[in-house]
Amino acid sequence: MTTIALYATDTMADWEYGYLTAGLAMAREQDPNANRLIVASETGQAVTTMGGLRITPDVGLADLPTLDALILPGAGSWESGHETVLKLAARLVASGTLVAAICGATYGLARTGLLDDRPHTSNAAEFLTQAVEYRGSEQYRDEKAVSDGTVITAGATAPIEFAKLVFERLNVFPQPVVDAWYGLYTTGERKYYEQLAGA
């Protein structure tokens, strides 16, 4: 079973992880042992999302089991703080474990130096250069989402591309299912729905 942690923090952006968590749940409907999603905040405390939803995490970061992936959604607070989860992200990356960050969370990774030596993206190149610790501008890609195999990054407007890269990296679905899922949510065409329904 693949164990995935979603980091929950106040003001996290609801739309940025929704496609991903819904897709993981769809995989569990097909196979209850497909993946395990754990929601973790820094100390296990409840958080309030940008959309005003109150979320009670399963655990604090200190109580996480061994992970196959860490998901870092954007929030309005990544310019400082989040040291515990950023240290965890650095350890995971060093061990080859997937860390996937979207929107503001890419700023957090930039602050730690995790983007200095690998292809990555974010909301805009100028967004990351505001982090004085960031030295990775030559590795920046003007794309919706980027994966180097260990770190996935995406901008705020690319939750579908973000989810797709995570699905592919973790082998959540066979590739034809991922392609049909992506086709459906990017075009709305019936043929992709039929492909998904027949998978």
Break the fold down into its secondary structure elements and pairings.
Elements: E1 2-7, H1 14-30, E2 35-41, E3 47-48, E4 54-55, E5 59-60, E6 69-72, H2 83-94, E7 98-102, H3 104-112, H4 125-129, E8 145-147, E9 151-154, H5 159-170, H6 175-187, H7 190-198
Parallel strand pairs: 1-2, 1-6, 2-5, 6-7, 7-9
Antiparallel strand pairs: 3-4, 8-9
Plain-language structure description:
By secondary structure, the protein is of the alpha/beta class. 39% of the residues lie in helices and 18% in strands. The strands form 2 sheets. Strands 5-2-1-6-7-9-8 form a 7-stranded mixed beta sheet, with helices on both faces. Helix 1 (14-30) runs parallel beside helix 5 (159-170), helix 5 packs antiparallel against helix 6 and helix 6 packs antiparallel against helix 7. The longest helix has 17 residues, at 14-30. The mean pLDDT is 96.
Supply database-style keywords.
single chain, 199 residues, alpha/beta, 7-stranded mixed sheet, two-stranded antiparallel sheet, 7 helices, 39% helix, 18% strand
Order of helices and strands: EHEEEEEHEHHEEHHH
Largest sheet: 7 strands, mixed
- The overall pLDDT average reads 96
What's the helical proportion of residues? 25-40%
Give the low-pLDDT segments: none
Number of strands: 9
Amount of beta strand:
15-25%
